[in-house]
Amino acid sequence: MPPFALPRSLSGYRPQDAGILTHALIAMLVRELPRLTPVTLPERIHDLAGALVDGDNANRRRVLLSTAAGHAATYLRRLAPTGWSLLGCEFDTGNGRVDLAWQHLDGRVFFDEVKTVNRPVGVLTPSWVDQAARYARGGKGHFGADFAGVRLLPIGSLHCAALVRADGTFSRLSPTSADPLASAEAVHGSDQ
User: Fold this and answer.
1) What is the 3-state secondary structure (H, E, C) of the chain?
2) Where does 84-188 sit in CATH, by number?
3) Is this structure's pTM higher than 0.85?
């Protein structure tokens, strides 16, 4: 079962259903990830999503299932941090609920704000950065110097991924599972 309460219905009628389902799938599968293969991962995601999606409109259910399954697969294959423990999903920062919270054995913590947009974006919207900064202020207040920031991850436009700090400043990321906070400049040089 999901590590947090899901709404009574995930039918695809509400705009937030895709995000809620994506976060739930990630949280439910992250511990299984080491045992899943490139073949079994999408099968497992699809099975879980199918069990959670309901509603009376078959087209909305199919779109919701496909959208959330695709976003969860991208996150789990490319972004789920190895060597970090999931602190929570829909984690209460004190300044709102962030999608995912992670902690390393050395004490470092970061949050993920996963944007499940179905269209490519070229820039981070100010409302997204403001939201992530609000969560970062909560993280900084709770975890102090161990808090690294909020990874803002627009799935489908990961070239815009950024680490947002409590003061609202951000830097571009090129995150991987092995290095979830990898700077875009460190990976791509200073031409960014």
Assistant:
1) CCCCCCCCCCCCCCCCHHHHHHHHHHHHHCCCHHHCCCCHHHHHHHHHHHHHCCCCCHHHHHHHHHHHHHHHHHHHHHCCCCCEEEEEEEEECCCCEEEEEEEECCCCEEEEEEECCCCCCCCCCHHHHHHHHHHHHHHHHHHHHHEEEEEEEECCCHHHCEEECCCCCEEEECCCCCCCCCEHHHHHCCCC
2) 3.40.1350
3) yes
